[in-house]
């Protein structure tokens, strides 16, 4: 069986996913067969495996860093929040049902066999498993049925690295308090702490590091600097959605829906030197963009009602009537149609009128579409742009009299086009760079400006470069020798 190392954090957002991604790449560079694993993930940013199953995006990213195709065993349990207290439960890549927090907490130990079977399968095929925890192991109210932090570490006998986020402040209290709240047998699993997201002179930390080691009895195995690398974020609270706007020739606005999902569709747009990407949550922020995008959402009907209540729906219509191009992706595409019906109560139940910018009608059903696609754009301005992406959605959409947005390699068509309003179910549509280049040229032409053609790096190649940059920086910051020693010691009991 494979050796393993587990990355836990003092809180959500401490940088566990990024450190796990870095370790996957480092072990790959060192010649090992390595795979990521996270028993339970909660995120709206999901991904489709080659065999049409659904898993957390973070583990798909880590798999890519490890040189592997993503595999649903890397994330056997995925929770996709649909409200403040409820989530869609996905087990081994397929929907198990809708659960509120109390109901899921009461039944999640029943999922331990699924977790262990997935882990055992990966461990039999690889040399090292990099395990990512969730939240914090010091959530003592949840410890009884834990299957993602120390509970999982016990099940697979994993040594643990504990990461704290210094950028938020109070990192010594984070690390000390977390260790102090652990059970004695759990503390023995913590082989090192890591201070993450540091800006400044690490030498100034030394007195604090010495005291922390003395208080916890755990060595500090690294101080990782704030890293300027672009790795897909796990959730919509990630800093990429909070970036400062950059003044560029073309203004692209994405509406930040309350349940926005698959927001990793959009960073590739920013690689174009003339496109400025921003996120808007109110009609005043929307202003008059050159392109307005309605993104995917986990709760299409609720977010459509939110657009209606905030006045954003009227503003979207007004912009479209004035000629502003509008693009809807997945749930955003559904909203742009004439109606959304939910006869089986998959989301909201009943029927809602849509924004009405496309002559489309969507009907939800309990079946979820999960598939990867290759396609070519059909519409005039974007004609012949090659696309690669994936679909994850509930329901089917009849495009009515609209022209299709793209033609897929399997002969099917996707999406709808009506004038300068576009809709598609395809996530990842900007990843090849071809659609981005055509959109930029078209938007500039609408403003009477000619821009120089740009050869954009395909996203897959760009990501590989970022993984190497990440691995190099983290390797330089961590005591990898001690990490290898810890994995070896635990593998021998």
Structural summary, described in words:
The chain has 493 residues and is an alpha/beta fold. The chain folds into 2 domains: 257 residues, 3-Layer(aba) Sandwich (Rossmann fold), CATH 3.40.50; 201 residues, 3-Layer(aba) Sandwich (Rossmann fold). Helix content is 31%, strand content 28%. The strands form 6 sheets. A 6-stranded parallel beta sheet has the order 2-9-1-10-11-12, sandwiched between helices. Helix 1 runs parallel beside helix 2, helix 1 packs across helix 14 and helix 6 runs parallel beside helix 8. About 2% of the residues have low confidence.
Oligomer: single chain
Under CATH at level 1, the class of the largest domain stands as: Alpha Beta
Tertiary shape? globular
Annotated CATH architecture of the largest domain? 3-Layer(aba) Sandwich
Extended strand count: 26
Please state the average pLDDT score: 93
Going by helix content, strand content and strand pairing, the class is: alpha/beta
Q: How do the strands and helices of this protein lay out in sequence?
A:
Elements lengths: L2 E7 L6 H14 L4 E4 L2 E3 L3 E3 L5 E3 H9 L11 E5 L4 E6 L2 E7 H7 L4 H14 L2 E5 L17 H7 L3 E6 L5 H11 L2 H4 L2 E9 L7 H11 L3 E6 L24 E6 L4 E2 L13 E6 L2 H4 L4 E4 L1 E2 L2 H11 L1 H10 L4 E4 L1 H5 L3 E4 L7 E4 L7 E17 L8 E13 L7 E3 L4 E2 L1 E3 L2 E4 L9 H13 L12 H19 L2 H12 L2
Parallel strand pairs: 1-9, 1-10, 2-9, 3-6, 10-11, 11-12, 13-15, 13-16, 16-18, 18-26, 19-21
Antiparallel strand pairs: 4-5, 6-7, 7-8, 14-17, 19-20, 21-22, 21-23, 23-24, 25-26
């Amino acid at each position: 069986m494979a050796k393993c190392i587990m990355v836990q954090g003092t809180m959500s957002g401490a940088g566990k996913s990024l450190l796990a991604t870095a370790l996957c790449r480092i072990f790959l560079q060192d010649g090992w067969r390595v795979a990521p694993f996270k028993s339970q993930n909660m995120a709206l940013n999901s991904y489709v495996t080659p065999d049409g199953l659904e898993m957390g995006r973070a583990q798909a990213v880590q798999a890519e860093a490890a040189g592997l195709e993503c595999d649903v065993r890397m994330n056997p349990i995925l929770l996709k929040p649909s409200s403040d207290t409820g989530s869609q439960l996905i087990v081994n890549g397929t929907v198990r049902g809708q659960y509120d927090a109390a109901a899921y907490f009461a039944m999640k130990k029943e999922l331990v066999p699924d977790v262990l079977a997935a882990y055992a399968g990966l461990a039999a095929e690889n040399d090292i498993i990099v395990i990512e925890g969730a939240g914090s192991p010091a959530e003592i109210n949840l410890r009884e049925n834990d299957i993602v932090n120390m509970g999982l570490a016990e099940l697979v006998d994993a040594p643990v690295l504990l990461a704290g986020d210094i950028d938020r402040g109070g990192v010594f209290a984070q690390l000390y308090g977390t260790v102090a709240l652990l059970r004695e047998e759990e503390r023995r699993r913590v082989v090192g702490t890591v201070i993450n997201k540091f800006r400044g002179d690490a030498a100034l930390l030394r007195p604090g590091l010495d005291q922390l080691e003395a208080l916890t009895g755990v060595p500090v195995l690294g101080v990782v600097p704030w890293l300027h690398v672009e790795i897909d974020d796990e959730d919509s609270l990630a800093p990429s959605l909070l970036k400062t706007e950059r003044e560029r020739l073309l203004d692209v606005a994405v509406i930040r829906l309350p349940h926005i999902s698959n927001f990793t569709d959009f960073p590739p747009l920013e690689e174009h030197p003339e496109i400025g990407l921003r996120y808007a949550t109110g009609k005043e922020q929307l202003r008059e963009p050159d392109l307005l995008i309605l993104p995917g959402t986990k709760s299409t009907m609720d977010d459509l009602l939110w657009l209606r209540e905030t006045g954003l729906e009227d503003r979207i219509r007004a912009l479209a009537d004035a000629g502003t191009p509008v693009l809807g992706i997945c749930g955003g595409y559904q909203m742009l149609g004439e109606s959304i019906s939910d006869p089986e109560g998959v989301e909201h139940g009943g029927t809602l009128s849509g924004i009405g910018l496309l002559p489309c009608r969507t009907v939800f059903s309990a079946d979820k579409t999960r598939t990867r696609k290759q396609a070519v754009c059909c519409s005039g301005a974007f004609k012949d742009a090659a696309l690669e992406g994936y679909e994850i959605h509930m329901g089917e959409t009849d495009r009515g009299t609209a022209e299709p947005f793209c033609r897929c390699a399997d002969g099917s068509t996707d999406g709808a086009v009506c004038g300068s309003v576009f809709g598609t179910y395809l996530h990842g549509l900007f990843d090849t760079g071809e659609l981005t280049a055509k959109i930029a040229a078209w938007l500039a032409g609408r403003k009477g400006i000619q821009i120089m053609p740009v050869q954009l790096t395909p996203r897959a190649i760009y990501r590989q470069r970022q993984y190497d940059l990440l691995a190099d920086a983290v390797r330089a910051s961590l005591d990898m020798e001690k990490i290898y020693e810890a994995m070896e010691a635990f593998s021998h009991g």
